[in-house]
Amino acid sequence: MSIFKLVGKKNKARLGKLKTLHGEIETPFFMSIATSGFIKGLTTDEMREIKAPVILSNTYHLMLRPGEKLIKKAGGLHKFMNWRGPILTDSGGYQVFSLAKFRKISDSGVKFKSGIDGKEYFLTPKKAIEVQQDLGSDIMMVLDECVENPASYSVAVEAVERTTRWAKVCKEVKSQKEKVKSDKLKVKKQLLFGIVQGSLYKDLRKKSAEDLIKIDFDGYAIGGLAVGEGKSEMYKMVEYAAQLLPENKPRYLMGVGYPEDIVKAVSLGVDMFDCVIPTRNARHGMLFTDLKNINLKKGIVKYKALHIANEKYKEDFKPIDKNCDCELCRNYSRSYLRHLFMSKSFLGQRLATLHNLRFYIKLMNEIRALLK
Amino acid sequence: MSIFKLVGKKNKARLGKLKTLHGEIETPFFMSIATSGFIKGLTTDEMREIKAPVILSNTYHLMLRPGEKLIKKAGGLHKFMNWRGPILTDSGGYQVFSLAKFRKISDSGVKFKSGIDGKEYFLTPKKAIEVQQDLGSDIMMVLDECVENPASYSVAVEAVERTTRWAKVCKEVKSQKEKVKSDKLKVKKQLLFGIVQGSLYKDLRKKSAEDLIKIDFDGYAIGGLAVGEGKSEMYKMVEYAAQLLPENKPRYLMGVGYPEDIVKAVSLGVDMFDCVIPTRNARHGMLFTDLKNINLKKGIVKYKALHIANEKYKEDFKPIDKNCDCELCRNYSRSYLRHLFMSKSFLGQRLATLHNLRFYIKLMNEIRALLK
Fold it and tell me: Which of A122, A220, A290, A346 has CB 3.0 to 4.6 Å from B346, enough for a Cys bridge?
């Protein structure tokens, strides 16, 4: 029984269905970021209200605080955070490389110190899977090595080779676990995705994709993009990498992006997205509004960015977006939201976050509607 | 037609009904604090969900930001903040004395500088009423002079005399306004309360109450308590001041307090309360739980204070309060709330605030039930 079903296709853009332990999700979809087991400022009731289909949590953050063993005791991440829908967890690799205070990489894994209490950790491919099994996420990611762009060819080669070696270990650890009878049922249903690296080098992307496909994962991510390169370079590499991947498996572009990036990537054949932009920008008073003209053939979309601190909204008693059905737009004016931000109230950040996530969910709804 | 109706009485404790422009409220009641036109972290939808009957906003804060003229343009404070229930606004007096950067008091009013932008303001009794009329609150308070305890007799005398003079002006300004035909309907329905001062001097409390009763207000507040004196002194003065006030008018003890203070004051004949304790303590991770044994005869109550940062809650997967119906207690564990606080997430503060306000609302429900 296939976990991913391609339902429709227009040019390269794909409409599909992905089965997980916590329900089926229509692709393309966007995952809201619940880094440490919570969406900053929002409750899971609210996430259900805005019809968020799936969320993403960060293994690195949860491993450091409150710890995967505590979450396992709580009955898993879903129960701990009261989220009944699917959860994807990253492997912690990206955060170790970008956030950890001190790190030492070797072929067996990455040694690093916690930014919270200085405690030393050793993240190996095996450990990354074990932690994600403790969390009980629906979609696990392999431990990869992500390099910033621009990267020299030799650095990129090394990262690709290590990523492949680690991916093999991750798959083996999962397979071993599946043989343990008591864990069988649950472990089998957790999906595992490989991550294609290779920086901006086509031959390395090709090699990475081919190696991972041989190992055989439930889905494939395109990693190492939106990490320093320009947009046109990113789009070119997404286009190239997407066509390397099997038609019958979901494709996930990690950490991307603005609505135009998502529409573009969908038009290039990508199915899954996550990004901090809607939530982080909301906390800075930037709201997405007036979504229109999604064109999947050209890979473009129109919308407006409303900066609520702007003086011109001081006496603007209209809603943020008259076509939005979120709590902010239903109940409060631009003038009031501006007052909340000027007062440095976290209620303002909360309402803006809710609105932006609802915007992204509607964006994905409309993208899928165009593919039906 | 009387705006306040005494429905029942047990010893000194009173059950009543207060009519306002935005509906009738059963007394005794507690007003949640929406200082600058918002409850810190909560939406008005949530305030309705937890069945908050009435809120309090601060004239001083709203006058400085966003300004009463903006709120008037928005259609009044109710519309601006999307709150359909009653609102009481204080006069700004207390804040001018406790918060303003620079202040110069004279018989005509108080000159002070805004802590936000240094702008100079002149708050007079007339201005205090005009601002509250612009805000459109249901219950307005007179401008008073509140002194900290302990206060010398001469300082207390001066404050009482000035409070009476200013109270007269406030009443006159309101009466004048009521004669202006276009404003007639709305202005008439706004209630105006006098504020009894007199520090801890019985003779001054008596004089203050008698002077204010002569002016004739819709209700009477007991001010100048919980400002430095001990609890037993406060209770003594509440007991003394309450019996000075007319039976047929609501009595409001300003800025008090913990559940035990409220139960005590109800037992002494007080009908209305407001305090920052449930919201401020929530933001510091202190949660009220296990409400029981309200005794209005003795003026006592039992409950527990749960400090969520405590290590013992780390792996405590029980709800904060198993008898509570708030979103926090329905959906999340102590362990999870602790994780939110350890992560310095404002979601933790938000959920704790919701819980504590729900606790206070239930406290008042149970108090009223005992009076029925």
Answer: A346
In this structure, the answer to whether residues A327 and A232 fall within a common structural domain is no
| Contact assignment for B336 to A81 by CB distance below 8 Å | yes
Determine contact, residues B213/B193, Cβ cutoff 8 Å. no
Identify all chain B residues contacting A345, using CB atoms and an 8 Å cutoff.
36, 38, 40-41
Q: Does residue A16 form part of some domain?
A: no
Question: Which residues 25-64 of B are in CB contact (within 8 Å) with A?
Answer: 36-45
Tell me: the pLDDT tens digits for A37-71? 999 999 999 999 999 999 999 999 999 999 999 99
Are residues B255 and B367 both part of a single domain?
A: no
Among residues B257, B275, B293, the one where a domain terminates is B275
Query: Which residues in chain B have Cβ-Cβ distances shorter than 8 Å to A77?
Result: none
Residues B241 and B322 in one domain: no
pLDDT tens profile B189-248? 899 999 999 999 999 999 999 999 999 999 999 999 999 899 999 999 999 999 999 999
- 3-class state of residue A67 by DSSP: coil
Domain residue limits at A289: 276-372
Torsion of CA A349, A351, A352, A357, to 10 degrees: 120
Interface test with A, best of B38, B84, B312, B327 (most A CBs within 10 A): B38
- Taking CB atoms and an 8 Å limit, are B74 and A346 in contact across chains? no
A95 and A184: one domain? Answer: yes
B175 and B46 in a common domain: yes
Say whether B332 and A82 touch across the interface (CB within 8 A).
Answer: yes
Q: Do B262 and B335 sit in the same domain of this protein?
A: no
If one counts the domains in chain A, the total is 2
Cβ–Cβ gap A41/B70 under 8 Å = no
Q: How many angstroms separate the Cα of A52 from the Cα of each of A262, A306, B6? A: 16, 22, 50
With respect to residue A320, please indicate whether it lies within any of the assigned structural domains. Answer: yes
The verdict on B12 and B152 lying in the same domain is yes
Provide ipTM, 2 decimals: 0.97
Best CA proximity match to A135, nearest among A105, A171, A165, A92:
A92
Q: What are phi and psi of A89, to 5 degrees?
A: -115, 135
